[in-house]
């Protein structure tokens, strides 16, 4: 009885972790694109006379 409850909580927590990791991955990728994108645009605009 206790084992099945523990197993169910493990499965649900794993699903939550997977969903959170996907959301986190999207946020991290978006953040990296913003951080890498904006400075390069500033550098390009500074190089041009």
Short description:
It contains 1 helix and no strands. It is mostly helical and about 50 residues long.
Structure report:
With 49 residues, the protein is mostly helical. The protein has one domain (1-49). 94% of the residues lie in helices and 0% in strands. The chain has one helix and no strands. The mean pLDDT is 74.
Describe the SSE topology.
Elements (H helix, E strand, L loop, with lengths): L1 H46 L2
Number of strands: 0
Q: Report the oligomer.
A: single chain
**Overall pLDDT level:** 74
Main β-sheet: number of strands, strand sense, barrel status? none
Name the poorly predicted regions: none
Residues in helices, as a percent range: over 70%
Radius of gyration: 21 Å
Content of β-strand:
under 5%
Order of helices and strands: H
Task: Please name the defining characteristics of this protein.
single chain; 49 residues; mainly alpha; rod-shaped; membrane; transmembrane; transmembrane helix
């Amino acid at each position: 009885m206790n084992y099945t409850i523990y197993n169910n909580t493990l499965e649900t927590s794993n699903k939550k972790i997977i969903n959170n990791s996907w959301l986190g991955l999207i946020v991290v990728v978006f953040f990296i694109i913003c951080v890498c994108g904006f400075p390069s645009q500033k550098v390009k605009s500074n190089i041009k006379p």
